[in-house]
Specification:
elongated, six-stranded mixed sheet, alpha/beta, 40% helix, five-stranded mixed sheet
Amino acid sequence: MNAEIISVGTELLLGQVVNTDTTIVARELSALGINLLYSAVVGDNVERLKLAVETAISRSGLLIMTGGLGPTTDDLTKETTAACAGRKLVLHQPSLDRILNYFNEKKVSSNQEKQAWLPEGCTVFQNDNGTAPGCAFQAQSGCTIIMLPGPPSELEPMLRNYVVPFLKQDQEWVIVSHNVHIYGRGEAPVAQMMDDLMNGENPTLAPYAKEGECYLRVTAKAHTEEEADQMCQPLIQEIKRRLGDFVYSVDVESLEELVVQKLVDQGKKLATAESCTGGLLAKRITDVPGSSAVFDMGCVTYANEAKEALLSVDHGTLERYGAVSEETAREMAEGIVRRSGSDIGVGITGIAGPDGGTAEKPVGLIYIALSDGEHTWVTKRSPIGRTKSRAWHRHCAASQALDMVRRYLDGLPVIAE
């Protein structure tokens, strides 16, 4: 089946709201083995929306609409799409009852009630997180049309809980994908190492870049999920064999998620001492649910005086080697271990830019240290020969620190070769 997505909303066209709906829907369509051919964004304009819908239903077997189902006058998706499909709107009493219950009222205004008017004979998807229900119906052309609310907090659970099971009913094939995440090797060299594996038709292999890292997506198509998954496994194992410990996970989407889980599994705690990253490492760790069980404390010691007072970095070390040095990073990591009593301490100090660099210590020079109270390891990030942003240097330094923790917990060399 070929599909397309139309996201409705002038705020999307103006860039006032980021259109994440297409990403959410496209991901689910891919998992179902449905080919997505087109996606479009249309503002709150009846004529333009009508043209987009008519074009879509004339060339595709599935059209998914997101947004424009709410109570305001610019919510035009349902009325326009139903007219294009030759369907009249009728009151769906169960949806109205849910809206009444949502507002704890016996009667609601006409604009709220209009959300319960749906194409006649449609399959209704209840909204467990808002008021506007979704629905599915067929146009006279035979195209299946699915309309979903725009807010991701409403769209995503409706899609997962109701729409995906609805679409699975007619699917002969299932697609399974696994993401093999890699840190310490760039997309280009990884792709070169995997060149002979990327010619397969089923399963397929494709490289993707992330900020400061990359991943390989392994995808297989079969009649069942179990069969497709089994087809992926030999290729995943071959990737691991070639890349070794630069593979940090399969399907765990971030280093911080992986590190928090490993700390939990091993009953260990972590503390951080940061300078140029400004607390970014601590933020990424504490963004992960459950991190309170393993993260003791974080210190942002931007000034030398703070490094001395909070981490016991020696004044002589700072005078002799400077704040951006292997020696200072080492003492920061060791100091946070002592102060926090944690099993592992990380220290980061460097020059994130865009200013502050010198010929001896250029922008992008960052030292990262890890200490377990007995041993300390320090690595150096050097500028890579082209201008990178302050945010990039900070993000990559935090990622490398997380990878060092991951390696330590796995019993690997802490400093990757």
